[in-house]
Amino acid sequence: MKKRVLLVGGKDNARSLALSLIKQGYHITAVNDTYGDCMKLAEIDNLVVINGDGTNPFVLDDAHAMNCDAAIALTSKDEDNLVICELCKKQFHVKKTISLVSDPKKTDFFYQMGVDSVVCAITAVTSIMEQQAFMEKMENILPQGEGQVQIAEVPIPGTAPVVGKKLWEVNLPREVIIGCILRGGKTMIPHGNTQILTDDVLVLLSGNNQESDAIRELTGR
Amino acid sequence: MGIFSSKKNKTHTIIIGCGRLGANLANTLSEEDENVLIMDKDKDAFRKLPLSYGGLTLTGDGTDFDALQEAQIACADVVIVVTNNDNTNVMIAQIAHEVYHVKRVIARLYDPERECIYQEFGIDTICPAVLSDKEIDALLTKIPATVKKFEFTEETK
Among A136, A152, A185, B57, which residue has the fewest nearby CB atoms (within 10 Å)? Predict the structure, then answer.
């Protein structure tokens, strides 16, 4: 059976999310309180659109919220998103609720109120921008576990201060370890006496956002 | 002695939303000599308060954690949420109750359908539509004295 997903609110983000979810074979219902936005959403094939206020229980009832596997709240107002998720959870027993939140300080509060997944656009965008801005030399950072742990790939240029040094000689921050070295297509798990060479790619595991200090230490910038 | 003991027992009340209800409530409580702070994001809203109002006012968004901390919400005995938006009231009431552990939280809800969210959290709600409904019903049951008489006379005819 097709999985059912309910999208409440949002204009462009609802549109692009609906398109990609429908492509993946989900059954999508979109609820929006602006008639114009509904008309725009209705242009998408196979999308059920309902014009109404998603914070109203009977509108969610019309959208068959009780049969949905997941509900995603995308409005621009935090309070509306919270009410949508709580109604879906408590009144319609939707298994998974996901909410967009604009105030980063409310992320924890939303989790505390029983929202299953909270996405803060501002935090996400800021951290991506930060990475892009001052770490051109870095290929990848993958945030893990709510962004508490980062995995970063750091290429070592010939000018780096650590070239030729052994790992124990490098003064890394406490919560950073070099988990792996990629050298000429080979993978090696390093130990304290491993020497760092030019063109190595170090895979760092770091907690507490200390990866930028570690990268400065390793590449000298 | 009486002065000291009464001072100690003063309750600290925060009212969020300075509309007609909020302003009236703030004034009543301050006349009863309680510590009252009223909060609204629009500073012009405080014009609704009478000149005699003796409590505090704070301009700030009640959904913002920093503004609530400025209002010293953690020390409040009672928080009354009466903004003109139900969803805002739901969120502020939950923040007060769950994050700052305020014991008594009262919120106004225009639409009684959303009450189910509150019930689980132990937040008291006031619904103007339900209250008016009861009041009108009470008025109607009072009046029938004359209506009944009329019916009675008709029946006896």
Answer: A185
**Which of chain B's residues have a Cβ under 8 Å away from the Cβ of A113?**
94, 98
Nearest alpha carbon to residue A8 among A37, A36, A45: A37
CB distance B85–A78 less than 8 Å?
no
pLDDT at residue B40 greater than cutoff 80 = yes
Interchain pair A82, B88: CB under 8 A: no
Q: Do A91 and B86 touch (CB under 8 A)?
A: no
The domain boundary, picked from A124, A146, A180, lies at: A124
Would you call A79 and B99 a contact, using CB atoms and an 8 Å cutoff?
no
ipTM for the complex shown: 0.78
Domain boundaries along the sequence of chain B: 2-126, 129-157
When CB atoms are compared, the residue of B87, B94, B111 closest to A113 is B94
User: Per residue, what are the HEC states of A128-157?
Assistant: HHHHHHHCCCCCEEEEECCCCEEEEEEECC
Assigned superfamily of B2-126? NAD(P)-binding Rossmann-like Domain (3.40.50.720)
